What does this fold into?
Amino acid sequence: MTKSLFPEADRVGTETADSEARLLAALRLHLVDGVGPRTQQTLLDQFGTVEGVFQASREELLATEGIGPRLAAAIIAARHSREPQQELQRCRERGLKLLVRGTAEYPVSLAEIHDPPSILYCRGEYRPQDQLAVAIVGSRRCTMYGRQVAEKLAGGLARAGLTVVSGLARGIDGAAHRGALDAGGRTLAVMGTGLGEIYPPEHAGLADEIARQGALLTENKLLQPPLPGLFPQRNRIISGLVLGVVVVEAARNSGALHTVRHATEQGRDVFAVPGRIDSLASAGCHDILRDGATLVRDVDDVLQALGPLMAPVVTSTDQTILTPRELVLDDQERRVLNLVTIDPIPVDDVLRTAGIEVSRVLSTLTVLEMRHLVRRLPGGQVCRVL
It folds into this structure.
């Protein structure tokens, strides 16, 4: 047998072909009508791989929990469908990416929820720094007060280095995206339609700006039109992408409260902005405040309340963040904090290596302790707090 003259190229080519095959297999299952995230997980638990699902017999499929005759027939019919290849080609022609669960490009925090989408369609760019994200949601029929607060909060969070996530809807969502964009920050829009069907249509220009300064994301196929049931379902993705959800204005029947429910189930922080006590537009906010949500007056209220990250995140300025509270630190505070480890160390070690006056180091440690970022311990030691 003749040896290849280009073994490295052959290896790369094989890996590319394997990656393409896995992508098409994942897309094939994703496109089967009636197979949502939970059903997909049930099938994968039963058959091990996507390929195993499509190799299963009708009897084996019917023996799987939640799979009836109609769904089994749809899975079998999808085995030889050309739809995945056509869908992938349409996406590539539009410059879209498909983020597949289990790959490095897929959002880490979203993969941890109970029912993550198997595929995210992406227009723009999702970056690792987008793990430092907060959602701002609220009513489509918002007041001027709600719109102004949403824009101000989004702008402040963006300037602090967080990515602002919302749903591209009218009202509070649009104001949140606009506030982040105007501040020069990143924003992600999670859509309840396909990326080829911008809804509402008057936000097409806003969607273009978001794609240049963040990303549009959806689990729905490219040309999926708006359907009422898809919007509550996408709310679990909004909350799954973020550290916390801020409700700016919501009546008691607002869809934003669905996002709050998902956030609670996923262990995300929940925040709410109060309105007038007699405002029906803020009645939902007042209810969740009464039930324990954190009251928000400004950006600092959000940053101080957010819990530690699942893993350190490196920002666009090469700053390693362990907790969002660190984003408000100045250069000196950050310099001293980075000398303190999770394990206790002598304060004298910090004083010796800081490279600045002892009095300034000690005063900075006091500030960091007040911000609950470090803790002084007996014996002249100090440790970092998560």
